[in-house]
Amino acid sequence: WKLASWGSYLDRQLLERIGKSFRSIGDLDKRGVITLTQGFELRKSALNGAYRADYHPELIDKRKLLIRRLKERRYLWRIPEVAIGKVTADAAYVRVRGGFDRPLRVCEPPHVFVAPSGAFAVYEEDFLVIPPRQIGIGATRERSTLLKAIALYLNSDFARYYQFFNSPQPGIQKTISTTRDVGAIPLPLDETSGPLLQSWVELFEQIVIENRERDDFNASPLVGRLNELVGDALGLTERDRALVHDLI
Question: What angle do helix axes 198-210 and 222-234 make, rounded to 10 degrees?
Answer without folding.
Answer: 170
